[in-house]
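Section 3.1: Structural characterization of target chains.
Under the original work plan, the team committed to producing a structural model for every single-chain target entering the pipeline before any wet-lab resources were allocated. The record below documents one such target. The sequence was received from the expression subgroup and is listed exactly as submitted; it comprises 210 residues.
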Amino acid sequence: MKAARATQAERRAATQRKILDAATELLIRSGYAGATMPRVVARAGVSVGGVFRHFPTREALMVAVGEDVAQRMLASYRGWFEDAREDGGDPITRALKLLRRATRARLNQAWLELVHACRTDAALKKALAPVGRRYADAIDELAAAVLPELSEALGDRFPLLVRTVVALFDGEQMQRMLFAEPALEEERVELLVALVGALGVVDVKEPRRT
């Protein structure tokens, strides 16, 4: 029995996936400067015309990579948190350690490369900024979903806490590119847990499952 032929939409999605994966891998391996369109074409195994039919400019491709990476990172974090929940323990500590894991993830390096490139590429910055804002909002929403009691307790201050911790761990990851401080990094999580307590949330329990 012959396998069903892929539809045009399926072929289009498969080609886009190849291009996005190639560009993402080049960002991780070679940085923004190394993720050129000719190198993307070669790595994806797609014709030049095929790449430009889906992404008419390098800027359009990089913005699409940013959107794709953001969605994949959110999905990964959600899965990690659910898996780790089985081990019990303090959900705040768990959430913080998994956020650190996310900022150190190989895939996140592609996002960081794009953000760094915005410092000197005004057009990329203008195009990527809305993606970054949506990503930050989605992180806030995910954090509220995994820590509902903390979100309710802090109210309007909760997004401030989330974005501050994300910025801290992103900065920590940047420093680790030069040197790591394992003992200090471990104490940093303990300090953050204590700071949450100082905000008035001393006893945040595991949220009940629905």
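The chain has two domains: 1-56, 59-198.
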